[in-house]
Amino acid sequence: MTHKRIVRTLAIFLLVPVIAAVAVNAPAPMAGFKVLHSFSGKDGGSPNSLIQATDGLFYGSAANGGDTNSCPSDGCGVLFKSDTSGNFVVLHVFHATDGYLPTGLVKGSDGNFYGTTMSGGQPSGGGGGTFFRLDPAGNFTVLYGFIGGLACCDGGGPVGTPIQASDGNFYGTTGAGGAFRDTDHPGGFGTIYRFNPDSGQLTILHSFNLPDGNGIFPNGPLFQGSDGLLYGTTSEGGGASHTSGGTAFRVDMSGNLSLVAVITGMEPPAGLIQAKDGFFYGTGQNAAGGSVYRLNTNGKLTFINRFDGADGFNPHVGLLQAKDGFLYGTTSEGGLLDFQGGDIFRLSAFEAVRVLHSFVITGTDGFSPSSWLIQGSDGALYGVNGGGGVNGHGTIFRIDPRIPGPVASVTVNPTVIHSGQTSTGTVTLSSPAPAGGKVVTLGAGSFQMTIPASVKVAAGAKTAKFTIKALQVGAAQTVRVYASFAGQGVRTTLKLQP
Fold it and tell me: How far apart are CA 267 and CA 246, in angstroms?
C-alpha cells in the first residue's frame, strides 16, 4: 500500500443556517487583535514560525519570498525579526545552496539561533535540507546538509523546528530518509536526529519503518517531557494494518523509541505538548475536520474536541497552554466567517470552545494561520498567517486573550427536547449592547430543528432570547448551537430525541 503525506485537506462544511450569510464579509475591527506586519514577498512570504527571545524581539521564518532567482517563482525563504510595534528586519535570505523552505528557529543556550530548511543545501541547490546557525549579528552558517531520502541512510526534509534538550544537544525529525524504504516509498520513512553543537556532528538516532507499527513520516517538532524523554508524532503508519492513523511516540537520547498511542482515525500534523495536568495534547486531521486530543502517560486516547468547521477545520499546527491554563490553537481553514480563512480558538479543561478570531480571505488581517501560537512577555498571543494581508503574502499578528469577546455565553433550556418540542435559547453579551442594539448570529449543525439566523440584543441590555424547535427527529442527535458576532463566538449543546 502506498502512503502519502497529506499537506492540506479541503472539504465543505455546512452549518445550518448561519455562517453562509456572512462568509464573504470582512469582520469589523475587533478589540485585542492587531496586525504587526504584512509580508511583501521580497521580505518573505508564507511565514511559518515565530518565537520571542530574551531580548523581547520576535524571530521567525518565512517559507517563501526573498530570492526568486534561485527559487522561482515563490522565493527560497527568509529569516526575520520584529519588535512588538511591527518594526521588521530581514536577517537572512536563502539562496537554495544554503537551503530553502526554512521551518523555524530556536534560541540556543549559547545565544545563537538554530534551525533547519526542508530542502536544498548542496552546491547544486538540491539536497534534503540543512541544519544551520544564525548568530545575533546575523551571520549565517550551514552546519549540516542532509543528502535526502533516496539514498540510505541520511535523513531528508526536516519538518519541524529542532529543540535543544537538557543535555545541550539539538534534536529533530526529518520526514523522509533513513535506513528503511520500499518500492512504494523510495524516499524513506523519516528519521530522528541529534546535532551536537560542540563537535558539529549530526547523528541519525532512529529510522522509522512501516512494519513495526510505530508510525512513519514524523511531522513536527519534538518536545522534552517531564520524564526527560523526547515526544513526537507521525502522520501515518499506526496499528497492525498500518492504516489506523498516525502515532505518538517517545524516544530516549540514544534513539530507543516506543509507541505511546495510535491516534485512531487521525493524521497528526504536528507534535505534542505536555500541559500542567501532566497529560499530552495534540491536534489531528481527517476528512471530517480533525480534532484536539489528549493522551495520558499510558497512551489512553481521548478526543476532547472534534472540529465541525464553525470552530475551525483541520488544524495544521500544535497547541499552546497559556499562563491562564487554557489551551490555544489555530486552524488554517474553517471559522465563523469564511471557510477558507481559518481561526484562533481557546479550549478549556472542561472542553468548552471559544472562537477568539475568524479570518477571511478578503481582509487585511491575513488568513490560514500557519505557526504555533506563542505567548509574549506582555501576556498577548502572537502568530503568523500564511497568506493574505495588505500585500497578499501573509502577516504577523497579535491577539490579547484577556479582552473578552462580544458574546459571553449561549445557553438553552431545556437541554433535551423531542420531536415538535421547543427550547429557549439565551444569548448573553460581555457588556451592554450599544445604541441601536447588537445583532448576534446564530447557527446549529442540524436539519432536524429550526433556529433563527440571528437575535437582536436591545440597546442597554445584555441578554436576548430565541426559540429552537425540533422537527420530526429521526435519530437522537447532540447538536452544537453557536452564537457569534464578527467572527468571535461561543457554543453550547442541545440534545434532540425522537
Answer: 5
Grid coordinates in use for 50?
515565530
- Give Cα separations from 63 to 43, 73, 158 (angstroms): 11, 13, 13
Dist. CA 328–CA 240, nearest whole Å? 33
Kind of pairing, strands 191-196 and 201-207? antiparallel
pLDDT bin (cut points 50, 70, 90) of residue 182 is confident
pLDDT at 260 over 80: yes
Of 409, 401, 407, the residue nearest 380 (C-alpha)? 401
DSSP state of 21: G
Range(s) of the domain holding residue 380: 24-399
**End-to-end alpha-carbon separation of the chain, Å?**
43
C-alpha to C-alpha distances, 41 to 87, 120, 259, 372, 390, nearest whole angstrom: 16, 20, 41, 21, 11
Q: Report phi then psi at 21, rounded to 5.
A: -70, -25
The CATH number assigned to the domain holding 339 equals 2.130.10.10
Nearby residues of 116 by Cβ (< 8 Å), 6 or more positions away: 99, 102, 103, 104, 129, 130, 131, 132, 158, 161, 162, 172
Whether the CB-CB separation of 146 and 158 falls below 8 Å is answered with yes
If asked whether residues 50 and 186 sit together in one domain, one would say yes
Angstrom distance (rounded) from CA 225 to CA 229: 6
Q: Which among 399, 429, 458 is the end of a domain?
A: 399
What pLDDT, on a 0 to 100 scale, did the predictor assign at position 239? 78
- Domain end, chosen from 369, 399, 429, is at 399
Neighbours of 177 (CB within 10 A): 31
How many Cβ atoms sit within 10 Å of the Cβ of residue 123? Answer: 9
Of 250, 278, 284, the closest CA to residue 264 belongs to 284
Q: How confident is the model at residue 22 (pLDDT cuts 50, 70, 90)?
A: very low
Question: Quick one: 366 and 431 in the same domain?
Answer: no
In order of 257, 323, 330, 408, 447, the CA distances from 312 in angstroms are 33, 23, 8, 19, 20
- In one-letter notation, the amino acid at residue 241 is S
Question: What is the rounded CA–CA span in Å between residue 274 and residue 225?
Answer: 7
| Statement: residue 350 has pLDDT above 80 | no
Report the alpha-carbon distance of residue 10 to residue 278 in Å, rounded.
34
Query: Which residue, chain included where needed, has cell 430565541?
Result: 466
Q: Are residues 175 and 291 in the same domain?
A: yes
pLDDT tens for 377-427 read: 999 999 999 999 999 999 999 999 999 899 999 999 999 999 999 999 999
